[in-house]
Design a protein that fits this description.
The protein has about 270 residues and is an alpha+beta fold. The protein has a domain of about 100 residues. It contains eight helices and four strands, in the order αβαβββαααααα. It has a four-stranded antiparallel sheet. A hairpin with a 5-residue loop joins β3 and β4. The radius of gyration is 37 Å and the shape is flat.
């Protein structure tokens, strides 16, 4: 069981802290790759242009009606000016001499290498959803842990193609039926820890038997914590016994060495 789950169960986690706002609860996130309009390309070519994007759909656990989409990642073309070297005809003033010896100036065009400013566009990554999260963080509407949770889930999804579960999967929980598992997962209650934290609204969405399912989840987690604590105690005792055995063997070796030294001193030459 994760440290966060243990804290929640023991009443010390962020979800049980009365000082944390309701919308600071970690959300249920769903990511999807899509395309958006590339406005610059549309204007340049006169036909609809595309660019890649990643959308994130955000909803609260237990809410199956409200899922809000945001643009998590996309690219924009940022105008830049760079100097480029070009060959071009430029006017040059040439001093010429008349037959009578007087001079005059005449303009002619010659090939010359010059530098010109040229406007180009550089592709730049943008993260609009995280900019909104940062704004909410500055205004105290969410905590740093909420923002970090969202960023971590996004990065893991980009690497692995799925949002990892923080806890014991409901899909592997054999204390409830398959239909109940499917209902909970549809509601975003995809871990036993989340089921144990169900609100009254979430239980209304689950329907008949929801309170009993929540009770089972709480009991399962308590038993799981006890098992983990017992396992930790066993490991600790085994380590202590190993240390005692090593110390005993060390003492026996020293005793044997002393006996040899004593025999050497008492034996006749």
């Amino acid at each position: 069981m994760s440290e966060q789950a243990l804290q929640r169960l023991q009443g010390r986690g962020t979800l049980d802290d009365a000082n944390v706002l309701r919308d600071d609860d970690p959300p249920l996130l769903r990511f999807e790759r899509t395309t958006l309009e590339n406005r610059n390309k549309t204007i340049e070519t006169g036909r609809y242009g595309y660019k890649d994007a990643i959308l994130v759909y955000v909803r609260a656990y237990g809410d199956i009606k409200t899922e809000v989409p945001y643009v998590a990642w996309t690219t924009v073309l940022v105008p830049t000016v760079e100097q480029v070297m070009v060959e071009k005809q430029v006017p040059v003033i040439i001093e010429r001499v008349r037959p009578d010896g007087t001079t005059f100036e005449e303009e002619e065009f010659r090939q010359k290498t010059v530098y010109e400013d040229r406007e180009t566009f550089a592709e730049e990554e943008k993260y609009p959803w995280f900019e909104q999260l940062d704004d909410r963080l500055r205004n105290g509407r969410i905590s740093q842990s909420y923002r970090d949770y969202c960023r971590n889930m996004f990065e893991q999804w980009r690497q692995k193609g799925e949002v990892p579960l923080d806890g014991k999967p409901v899909a592997e929980w054999n204390m409830i039926s398959g239909a109940q598992q499917a209902t909970l997962i549809d509601l975003g209650l995809n871990t036993i820890e989340r089921v144990a934290e169900m609100s009254e609204d979430a239980m209304m969405e689950v329907g008949m038997g929801a309170r009993e399912i929540k009770r089972k989840a709480e009991a399962w987690l308590e038993a799981d914590v006890d098992n983990e604590l017992s396992s930790a105690k066993i490991v600790s005792l085994e380590a202590a016994l190993d240390r005692e055995s090593e110390e005993r063997q060390g003492l026996q070796a020293k005793l044997a060495e002393l006996e040899k030294m004593l025999e050497a001193q008492t034996s006749p030459d």
